[in-house]
Every structure is written in C-alpha cells, then in structure tokens.
Amino acid sequence: MIRIQVPATSANLGSGFDSLGIALTLYNQVWMEEDDKLDISCTDDVDVPKDESNLIYWAVKQLYQECGRKLPGLKLIQQNNIPLARGLGSSSACIVAGILGANRLLGNPFSRSDLINLAAKIEGHPDNTSPAIEGGLVTSAMEGGRVFSVSVPVSDKLKFAVFIPPFEVKTEMARSVLPETYSRADVVYNLSRSALMTASLFSGKLENLRVAVGDRIHQPYRSGLIENFDNVFRMSYELGSLGTYISGSGPTIIAMVPTDSMDTFIAHAENHMTEKGITGWDIRFLSVDSKGAQVLLD
Ligand code: HSE
Questions:
Q1: Percent of the chain having pLDDT more than 70?
Q2: Fewer CB within 10 Å: C terminus or N terminus of the chain?
Q3: What's the predicted TM-score (pTM) here?
C-alpha cells in the first residue's frame, strides 16, 4: 500500500481571503491500493462516508478519469487527525490525498503543477489545496483555470496557537453570509494587508502582523457564527498574540505567538478559558509545515 500524509492548512490568515494559506504540523494519513471493490475503513472513530460519496475516493476517481482510466475499486484506510468542518482544511486534505495517491498508483502521469491545478478546481479555491501540496506559506491566484502560486518559508520566531471549538461551521454556510460586493475602501484595506501579511511572515517583521490580519471581507460577517469569538479574540491579545484571525471559514481561531512565549501563552489561555466557563475547546500548539503532502511507501 502507499501512504499519503497531508498537512492541515489555515486559509485566509485574516486579510488574504481565498488567496493566502499556510500548512501546519497536524497531519492526516491515508493508505490506499487498487482493489476489485470499494473498501473504506478508518483507524479512528471519525464518521466518514464509507461509500462512493467518500471525498478521497471521489478525488481518486477524478484523477483516473482525467487519465482516461477506469478505477476498478479501492482499498482505503483513513487516519483523520484534522478535525472536520473546523476551518483547518479537512476537505482539501482529502482531495489532495486522493489525487496525489491516484497519481502515484498510475505511475505519476501528472506534474506537481497539474495536481495543484486539479486540486483547486475540485475545491473551488486554491488557498487550502496549494499549501496542503506545497507546504509553507502559499500565495495563490487563479487565472484561466490555472493556479499561479508561490510557497515561501515562514520565520521560525513564530508559532500558531490553534483554538478549535467543539462545534462545526460548514464552509458553504460561512460563505453564504458574505456580501456580494464590497466598497473600494474595503478592497484596498484587504489588498494592502494581505500583501503585508506575506512579506511580514516571510521576513520575520512580526510587529506588522496585528495590522496585517485586519480584514473587512469575511471576518466581520463570520464572527457571529462562532460562540465566544469575542472572548477568545480579546484573551489572545491580552496574552500577547501578535495577530489573531479566524482560520479559513472558521470556527477555529488562530493566534500567532512568538516561539519563546508559546508555552506560557497556552497555559494562561487554558486557565482563562476554564475561569470563563468556555469548555470543550481543543487548544493545539502548531508550527508551519514546510514540506507539504508526501507520498510514502510503507
Ligand atoms: N477561503 C475559504 C473561505 C476557505 O474563507 O471561505 C475555506 O475553505
């Protein structure tokens, strides 16, 4: 069997709606091989579809079709460490696992850039799929059905405190609350900040991050979907966050924190949330994954 390891991803980083994303050190593992029937199982108790509606299977089938090949059947084993519908790229991780795995099963007919294009086409936007494949901080734009992207490393002076709430928000719903149009002032506000975000994360000019997360495109409309949003946001800044944002379409909230104060930050955050009666949130301490998805032979 082959094993595909795919990182979690955090899209938008506040200002970079549908264009910025970062890969994080939390991974799904997927084992697969061709079979004469469909056989899907999990190493955990996460409830994923075990039939043809399974997203990994569906992505595998897409790639076989692109190649003009019929998929006989598939044995698929999933280890689902990326929580579902929390804004950490779980669906992109499935798509990427499916197309990278299928590409390997077929003898690698597609280039990395073909796979980046296909993954974004399936997902509809590239800001999770590109960093899931490439690793690092990825800036992407789509033009004529193709993704134009650059992955850059992120300063190691920075870590990510990831606050995962005990409830889901589906991306489709989180997109449905956004306006159809924006003013020129709001567009300029976001453009300037997302450019600042990329340059600041790359160069390590971390004092810019608090301004760079500023956003008028999605977060003001989505914050109401996240119970205790104000509490967690305010707390993160009181404890020394350099910049806090809704990860992807939420509901996870991420605080970017200096590496040397991360342990204290997490300990204080846990105490604060307990005192405020905010329960059930999972707080993770993650770094940037620089390698992206890997196909391995076990
Ligand atoms: N850029 C997307 C959004 C990420 O914010 O809706 C979620 O998939």
A1: 100
A2: C
A3: 0.94
